[in-house]
Write a structure and sequence with these properties.
Elements (H helix, E strand, L loop, with lengths): L1 E5 L4 H13 L5 E5 L11 E5 L5 H12 L4 E6 L20 H22 L9 E6 L15 H24 L3 E7 L2 E2 L16 E2 L1 H14 L8 E3 L8
Parallel strand pairs: 1-2, 1-4, 2-3, 4-5, 5-6, 6-9, 7-8
């Protein structure tokens, strides 16, 4: 079966593509991004354009992937924390409706649309996985610092989407696994303004993080579906 990585142009997305291709467990790997890919990965990698904020684009990408056969792994590695007009809020007075909508569009609505159009490509029998990058800050129970309203709320929404999806998918695909993944702090553009020094403990390269996350997915079973797991395989509190 084939594998799909959405968010192929990001640092972690590129590393996931390379790691999946190198492990050789899938016939081919589809690298999906707005640009249609930038040559990342090695081996049987195909690049397909996708815009998570445009459902027609998501549907078209799914149609392209479907033509190549069944899919055993889907990983949504896209996400936004900061960018033009978007910055993590330190206080409620900083909330901006447009920024909130933009963050939710990528971090929550986008993965939901990917699920809508790509879950039907998963086999009804046998192990298969649908995963999306979440974050520990999306945990409501673990929120002790406050701030980062849009990012926290969008990831909490994503976690609920994944939990709800897991319940539905289990009815027709009992061996399927739906999971959120917390990669830790990774040396990518997303974390650059907020991460510690390069030699600080707990900072992963994209390659290290990709290996961790694929190892976590390999260790999950149907009983774990609907959960969010960190890079070490530990369950993140809801």
């Amino acid at each position: 079966m084939n594998a799909v990585v959405v968010g192929a142009s990001g640092g972690l997305g590129r590393a996931l593509i390379r790691a999946i291709a190198e492990r050789g467990a899938h016939a081919s790997v589809f690298a999906l991004s707005r640009s249609g890919g930038d040559g990342a990965g090695s081996g049987p990698v195909s690049h397909v354009p996708i815009d998570l904020t445009d459902e027609a684009s998501v549907a078209a990408a799914a149609e392209t992937v479907a033509a190549a056969g069944p899919v055993g792994l889907v990983v949504v590695a896209s996400g936004v924390l900061h960018g033009p007009g978007i910055a993590p809020e330190k206080a409620v007075r900083a909330l901006d409706p447009a920024a909130l909508a933009a963050v939710f569009a990528v971090n929550a609505i986008g993965p939901a649309l990917v699920a809508k159009h790509f879950v039907p490509l998963l086999p009804r029998h046998g192990r298969c996985v649908f995963a999306a990058l979440s974050a520990r800050v999306g945990s409501i129970g673990d929120n002790r610092l406050g701030g980062w309203y849009a990012y926290r709320a969008s990831k909490a929404a994503l976690n609920q989407i994944l939990r709800t999806l897991a319940i539905e998918v289990a009815r027709t695909r009992p061996e399927a696994i739906v999971a959120g993944l917390h990669p830790g702090t990774v040396a990518t553009d997303l974390s650059r303004p907020f991460r510690p020094d390069a030699d600080a403990p707990g900072l992963f390269t994209p390659e290290q993080s990709a290996g961790h996350l694929l190892d976590v997915l390999d260790g999950l079973g149907p009983k774990d579906t609907g959960g969010v797991f960190d890079w070490a395989g530990k369950l993140v509190p809801p």
